[in-house]
Amino acid sequence: MAGGSSSEGKSGPVVAAPVRLGGSAWLRSLRDGTRGFFRILWSNPLSFIGFLLVVALAIAALLAVVAPNLVLPYPPNQLSTDYKQPPSATHWFGTDELGRDIFSNVLAALPLDLAIGFAVAGASLIVGGALGLVAGYWDRPGSLGGVLSVVIMRVTDIFLSFPSLILALAIAASIGRTVDGVVLAIFVSWWPYYTRLARGEVLSVKHQPYVMAARAAGVRDRRIVVRHVLRNVIEPLVVYFTMDVGTVIVVFSTIAFVINNVLPYPSATPEWGVMIQFYENFVSTLWWTVLAPGAAIFVTVLAFSLLGDGLRDILDPRSRRAQAAAGVPTLIPTAGESS
Amino acid sequence: MTEPVLEVEHLSVDYVVGAGRFHALRDVSVRVERGHVVGIVGETGCGKSTLARAIPRLLPRPPAEVKSGRIRFNGVDLLEVPAWKLPTVRGTGIGMIFQEPLNSLNPAFRVSVQIAEAIHIRKLREAGAATRTSSGGEPFDYSRGPEVSRSEALGHPFAVGGTAAETVVEKQANRRATREEVLEFLRLVRINDPETIVNLYPHELSGGMRQRVMIAMALSARPSLLIADEPTSALDVTIQAQVLTLMKELIDEVHASILFITHDLGVVAEMADEIGVMYAGHLVEYGPVQEIFEHPRHPYTAALLQANPTRYKADGPLSSISGSVPNLSRLPPGCPFHPRCPIARPSCGADPGPSLELVPGATDGPSSHRVACPYFSEVASPV
To answer: Which of B146, B172, B202 represents a domain boundary (last residue)?
Structure first.
């Protein structure tokens, strides 16, 4: 609206004038991209809420790591005489039977839980996605790629034939009841889902005419996979990843709940699942001690799920440009004009 | 006589699907002279597109299986080139335009990026060829891959001929040069306002525009042979006319030879110098376009011309060919057309079927009129 005054008065179609700010083309495209990003987020209130929640969680987690004294009202392990307090202004989420502040513990657990979610889902995205890309693109029977593809897919079948939670529990129980051990165990049972998803997407994309066109243009297979195929399968993968971060946190909490002594609690780095396990015995009297970490898990999962929905729109150039076009008038030729 | 750009000799391709074996191409020979346009016509499923994809070896394998034959492109037998060297041949020598303009452009990239990629690949090949020539090699040897580093091959499409030592200034200059070239090719295919078009995504273009961009992409590799696989079938008639006019104009401008695949007789009549008529994987007639239209010698060609709706007379029914296309896994013995042929006789069903013979009266040359029917004199010319 502010920029509209300059283009008023001109006759003819309104063309999005290339605004020159002296920046490079790269900067300009970055700025346009950011604008489109927010415009799409705005257009869907739920994904915008998800985005805000994720940003808030990220800032809170960062602060909890960098400046715990500023954000945590009480040291997580500090005992006090305010024991068994229900939620109040002084203790937002109440206190437990020894007077520890639940809010401080929930907040102190946030960085660890987020890190676990991103580590497992991220590693699965990279490893599983890459394997799925390879297995999907080079799958000609009889060739080296075909053999590799069969091996990869049979291995994922083996992993997928176990319920992932049971498999992760079994691995975690055998390789050690530490945070690292549980993270590794979840990852081992997690990547096959990404392989499956990526392979399925690659199989549909690689038969698209534009992949054939790229091959006809002399683009080498490796480049086709890295540029043309990956760019078109990344959208469902990233959306799945975003929603998966929350799921991983739930699974970690579940395993931490089931297996004793993954993390000693109370400790300097609490964890939501461990907290729920620890306060399980008080659920009928001090219900807030269980509800608070449970709600934290819920909100985190919700935030990433909502953001994931929005990302689906942002990553698809069709909807991205359609949304951008709705906000900014651009001249888009619709007919095949000829001279 | 100069060497032809493309010489397909006795090419046979099968599709192996489950237990069945479909004879998609049987003993097909096509020759494209330098600067000529060769049209291949036939009904759906006759093997036209298989031929188009077999030449740059784009057929998926399996199910496709090349049984025999040779595909000589600029003197090199493409069937002998090892698979990993094929991109070199495709990128520099053969350009393709596909039937589906809706899906032939990558939906995730802007027009500029896609054309720039084609230019980028061409420059990589040219750079590779140049270093080889200077080191005493042949002018261009397709049997050897380009000598480019991995980082170059995977690099950004705008980083033309990029090396590690390339400065930022050089990169910017290269980008500008590539962008200019992209605009040039868009102007070549008569796109109005290319400065706007380059920044659009494929879904923001109409079918005709996309097909123009496809043509620009194919041409930007400066191929010596352009294979157009039904480039106008998905477009409506007015856009079709525009694209055809464009291609006709471009033939003179870019000096490319074209293999034009279509089911539309009107289109070949318009475009081609020579045409080949295909039926059930066989080439049944081949020759200069005018002769075939005026004096078809094969009963199938005659029937096809007869069935052309432009010959529809207000009082009569539309003419069609009785019977149906044979199942490619169970071709009839002898001439594949004989079950539907009006002039067939018992001997037509005996193996081996007729092969392409020179029509009497035609001067013997590589592109003279040939027909695969011994009883061609009985075929009536359409009025």
So the answer is: B202
Residue B340: inside a domain? yes
Question: From CA A135, how far away is CA A56, in angstroms rounded?
Answer: 38
B121, B205, B212 member nearest A219 (Cβ): B121
Using CB atoms, which residue from A212, A213, A226 is nearest to B154?
Answer: A226
Angstroms from A259 CA to nearest CA on chain B: 46
- Is B301 a domain residue? yes
B196 chain-A contacts, CB cut-off 8 A: 15, 331, 333
CA distance A148 to A135: 7
What does pTM read for this prediction? 0.76
For chain B, positions 54-83, list CB contacts with chain A under 8 A.
Answer: 56, 58, 61-62
Task: Return the pLDDT at B332.
Answer: 79
Residue A297's CATH number: 1.10.3720.10
Give me A174's structure tokens: 């055998």
Q: For residues A220 and B100, what is the distance between their CA atoms, to the nearest angstrom? A: 22
Number of domains forming the structure of chain B = 2
CB proximity B185 to A under 8 Å: no
Specify whether the CB–CB gap between B244 and B214 falls below 8 A.
Answer: no
- pLDDT for B298 beyond 60: yes
- Confidence at A184, pLDDT banded by 50, 70, 90: very high
Q: What is the mean pLDDT of residues B326-347?
A: 79
Pairing of strands B225-229, B370-371: unpaired
Indicate yes or no: CB of A339 within 8 angstroms of CB of B90: no
pLDDT band at B381 (very low <50, low <70, confident <90, very high): low
Using a CB-CB distance cutoff of 8 angstroms, which residues of chain B are in contact with residue A221?
87
Q: Is B149 on the interface with A (CB under 8 A)?
A: no
The residue of chain B nearest to residue A338, with distances taken between CA atoms, is: B190
Mutation for B interface: A20, A208, A212, most B CBs within 10 A: A212
Mutate to test the interface with B, among A14, A208, A210 (most CBs of B within 10 A): A210
Task: State yes or no: pLDDT of A96 exceeds 80.
Answer: yes
Whether residue B33 contacts residue B257, with contact meaning beta carbons closer than 8 Å, is answered with yes
pLDDT tens for residues A303-332?
Answer: 988 888 888 777 777 666 555 555 544 444
Alpha-carbon distances, residue A60 vs A74, A104, A248, B275, B302 (angstroms):
15, 12, 20, 72, 80
pLDDT tens per residue, range B175-234:
888 888 888 888 888 888 888 888 888 888 888 888 888 888 888 878 888 888 888 777
B261 in contact with A at a CB cutoff of 8 Å? no
B162 falls within a domain: yes
Q: Is A82 inside any structural domain?
A: no
Question: Residue A185 sits in which domain range?
Answer: 55-67+92-321
Stated as kind and residue range, the H or E segment containing B95 is: strand B94-97
Which of B202, B222, B251 is a domain's end point? B202
What is the residue range of B198's domain? 111-202
Domain-located, residue B19: no
Do residues B42 and B279 touch, judged by C-beta distance below 8 A?
yes
Residue scoring higher pLDDT (B346 or A105) = A105
Q: What does the block give as tokens for A89? A: 């202004």
Task: Read off the pLDDT of residues B310-333 as tens digits, 9 standing for 90 and up.
Answer: 655 556 666 777 777 777 777 778
In a domain, A78, yes or no: no
Domain contains A278: yes
| Beta-bridge mates of residue B97 | B228
Q: Please give the Cα distance from B116 to B183 (Å, whole number).
A: 10
pLDDT given at position B311 = 53
* B98–A contact, CB cutoff 8 A: yes
User: Residue A73 falls within a domain, yes or no?
Assistant: no
- Please count the structural domains in chain A: 1
The H-or-E segment that residue B27 falls in is strand B20-32
Picking from B204, B210, B217 by the largest number of A CB atoms within 10 A of its own CB, the best residue to mutate is B204
